[in-house]
Design brief:
With 158 residues, the protein is α+β, with helices and mostly antiparallel strands. The chain has five helices and five strands, in the order αβαβαββααβ. Helices cover 32% and strands 25% of the residues. A five-stranded mixed beta sheet has the order 1-3-4-5-2. β3 and β4 form a beta hairpin.
Length: 158
Amino acid sequence: MKEGSKVEASKLWNNFIEQYPQYQNQTYESWSYGAAPDELATLTLNGTKTATASGYELYGIENEPLPEVGEFNVILDGQDNAICITRTTKVYVVPFKEVTESHAFKEGEGDRSLAYWRRVHIEFFEKAYQEGGISFQPDSKVVCEEFERIFPEMNDGN
């Protein structure tokens, strides 16, 4: 994007509220993916990515609440441009080694296989946990979150 064309989270949210005023009293979180934010935001926008995973123990270190069903999220790219809005549809916690092929496929990354998912997530989690002062293990808990992209809608040309 050109300089000065940044789309802010609040602007995208206001555009959403204009079309869907029934959500005007709702709140949202804006965030970017921890790894490859531009690529993963694009996968979310085009509907390929409908799930994500995060380290359970990291929520405690960062004093952050776990995601909840029904929450709205403004997904940002690596330059903090607002790309799309999602709503969380499912949240569950499992040991890393028990994440399923189905979840890996929904994450939409690489060849969408569980083997690919494990390889890139081990690397990501090991680094994130090390930065948090803890070690990542195959039994470490993972927060699996599923979502739907709600804005812009798929028929809006995206």
